[in-house]
Amino acid sequence: MNPTALDLPQVDPLPDGTAKFFAICEDKLGLVPNVLRAYAHNIEKLNAFSGMYNDLMLGESGLSKLEREMIAVVVSAENRCFYCLVAHGAAVRALSGKPELGEALVMNYRVATLSPRARAMLDFAVKMTVDSKQMAEADRQSLRDVGFSEADIWDIAAVASFYNMTNKMASAVDMRPNPEYHGHSRSP
């Protein structure tokens, strides 16, 4: 089944490096995310997307993995990106151990019980998403005031920017989340 509304089949056979990458995903996650399958129609595009994702979401940062996933969810909520809300909502549930946090971030992060640090971070990411031309020094200062470094502010902006791009791409091609994400990390 094609993970998007476009008829762009995955390269077959996959190059050895890509096949190995997909096997690692299957082993680690129990699935190959449909976003990767969608990009696999063009291995150069897949590698560029994966490289940026890996750097922003898994690379060295003063932001925790959970904080980065929280940014992904609130940006995706503003953009109403079905794929990312389902996939990254599952990641927030898993990383936080709190299904209610993932649900609150998907619906309205303002109702979530958040630390001042997390609230400032998410407010910044949402303002970037909704009206980036209005960003000002006061917005960056609000992050410094709760302990974010200059590099952390860069990372918040980079993660929010990445999800603004990927949300729009996923919506444009009707990218569908893997069905497994829906039940992931929910209370029994």
Please supply descriptive tags for the structure shown above.
single chain; 188 residues; mainly alpha; Single alpha-helices involved in coiled-coils or other helix-helix interfaces; AhpD-like; 2 domains; globular
Question: Would you mind describing this structure in some detail?
Answer:
By secondary structure, the chain is an all-alpha fold. It has 2 domains: 16-59, Single alpha-helices involved in coiled-coils or other helix-helix interfaces (Up-down Bundle); 65-172, AhpD-like, CATH 1.20.1290.10. Helix content is 68%, strand content 0%. It has helices at residues 16-29, 34-39, 43-58, 65-79, 82-96, 99-108, 116-131, 137-145, 150-172, 180-183. The longest helix is centred in the last third of the chain and has 23 residues, at 150-172. It is globular, with a radius of gyration of 17 Å. The protein starts with 15 loop residues before the first helix and ends in a 5-residue tail after the last helix. The mean pLDDT is 94.
